[in-house]
Design the sequence.
């Protein structure tokens, strides 16, 4: 398990932490930073752990007002991506500047044959800039960042400019090249309007529409069997009917993405929106 960790009480350091499958910390690397950045997610390739040091940082002014979440957009903080060799130290990080933006969630990353690093992310133009009530970006979309460790440059390619969040993929492909990504279409701040399936080879986007006043959460991909193809399996998640105040556990066939669900199990009350669930097979 690889993590990029920050401590709200220490604004000068973040940590790269590696834990074994037995739950023992194997590596912990202190990395100097400025302003106390809020780092929500990270990604790994076979060579690197990726650090997203972006301009949402600790705000003493916000903390003094008693606000429980003292992080704000900081236009004076340099936006950059760090490539830390998986067995490297802080001085080995390759820092690459990027245009100011914010990323909550990475989809996946992998090493390209030409030596570059490919990082797919959901990008927000700004975050915690105007409102203290919660996320307040004006634009969001799915992007591919091609990071060149030699020239220290990032090329940003827009995969899909539609508002979306909470990306998932076949987790067997973490850190490896992959083809399919699944995201939650947005209507308003982090409210689901449907699901997208992105074919990153063909550029095709499929949509699953649950109908009016029906809002899905983050759906998890489950392979059909150990040797299943990358989209051979199911997407499982909760969908709330805002009008009826009920919730359905919905199972979709990933290869018939826009089709009728394989199953839909009614829960006779509203389940509050959640995210970041995982599927674990019985016996694991």
Sequence:
């Amino acid at each position: 398990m690889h993590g990029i960790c920050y401590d709200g009480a220490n604004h000068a350091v973040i940590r790269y932490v590696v834990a074994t499958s037995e739950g023992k910390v194997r590596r912990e690397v202190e990395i100097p930073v400025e302003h106390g950045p809020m780092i929500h997610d990270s990604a790994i390739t076979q060579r690197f752990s990726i650090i997203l040091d972006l301009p949402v940082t600790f705000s003493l002014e916000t903390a003094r007002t008693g606000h429980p979440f003292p992080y704000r957009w900081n236009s004076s903080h340099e936006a950059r991506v760090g490539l830390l060799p998986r067995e490297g130290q802080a001085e080995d990080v390759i820092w690459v500047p990027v245009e100011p933006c914010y990323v909550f969630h990475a989809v996946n990353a992998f090493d390209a044959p030409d030596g570059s690093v490919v990082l797919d992310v959901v990008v927000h133009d700004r975050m915690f800039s105007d409102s203290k009530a919660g996320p307040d970006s004006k634009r969001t979309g799915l992007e591919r960042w091609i990071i060149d460790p030699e020239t220290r440059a990032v090329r940003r390619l827009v995969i899909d400019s539609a508002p979306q969040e909470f990306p998932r993929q076949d987790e067997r492909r973490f850190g490896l090249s992959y083809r399919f990504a699944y995201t939650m279409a947005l209507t308003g701040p982090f409210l689901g309007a449907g699901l997208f399936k992105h074919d990153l080879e063909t550029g095709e986007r499929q949509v699953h529409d649950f109908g009016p006043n029906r809002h899905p959460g983050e759906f998890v991909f489950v392979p059909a069997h150990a040797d299943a193809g990358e989209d051979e399996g199911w997407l499982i998640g909760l969908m709330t009917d805002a009008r009826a105040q009920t919730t359905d556990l919905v199972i979709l066939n990933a290869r018939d993405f826009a089709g009728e669900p394989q199953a839909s199990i009614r829960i006779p009350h509203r389940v509050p929106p959640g995210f970041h669930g995982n599927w674990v097979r019985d016996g694991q």
Remarks:
- The mean pLDDT is 95.
- The two ends are 16 Å apart (CA to CA).
- Helices lie at 60-64.
